[in-house]
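Retro notes (design track)

What went well: tokenization of the new backbones is finally stable.
What didn't: we kept losing track of which sequence belonged to which structure.
Fix going forward: every design gets posted as structure first, then sequence, in one message. First example under the new rule, 156 residues:
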């Protein structure tokens, strides 16, 4: 099926961002593991799985629309010196993701592509949950202090 105008361009942006998220969480899970925070490692690995599922769905949909998904492109992957830095970088990425998905959904509505719109609407629900997940983590750290928080992250 042929895509409506501008839809493949938006889907490509989503693929790049979701792939960037996969790389973010792979790296951050590895860093948490290296620092000894096994529990966080597992939680971030679950995020990786979510993002792989997202990117996979969008790739399938681009192919269905006779597009050519580019999986070589990646946005900058940010890390940091502490768990807090990682969470802040992750939160920023998820916020960008929500913004992009909302824009893409609005575009799909304009051009009358309801299938793509539906796919992206499902994804934005997950992304908003991801934003909330990192906001909650950062708020907890503020409330209990970084040391207390991290002492809870050592065991799975
Ligand atoms: Fe995602
Ligand atoms: Fe996400």
């Amino acid at each position: 099926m042929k895509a409506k105008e501008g839809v493949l361009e938006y889907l490509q942006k989503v693929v790049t961002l979701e792939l960037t998220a996969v790389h973010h969480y792979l790296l951050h899970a590895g860093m948490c593991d290296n620092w000894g925070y096994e529990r966080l490692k597992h939680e971030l690995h679950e995020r990786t799985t979510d993002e792989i599922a997202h990117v996979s769905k969008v790739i399938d949909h681009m192919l269905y629309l006779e597009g050519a998904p580019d999986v070589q492109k990646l946005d900058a992957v940010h890390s940091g010196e502490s768990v807090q830095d990682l969470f802040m970088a992750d939160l920023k990425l998820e916020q960008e993701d929500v913004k992009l998905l909302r824009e893409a959904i609005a575009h799909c509505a304009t051009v009358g592509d309801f299938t793509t719109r539906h796919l992206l609407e499902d994804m934005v629900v997950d992304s908003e949950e991801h934003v909330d997940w990192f906001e909650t983590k950062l708020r907890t750290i503020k409330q209990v202090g970084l040391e207390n928080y991290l002492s809870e992250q050592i065991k799975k």
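Added context from the reviewer: The first helix runs from residue 7 to 35.
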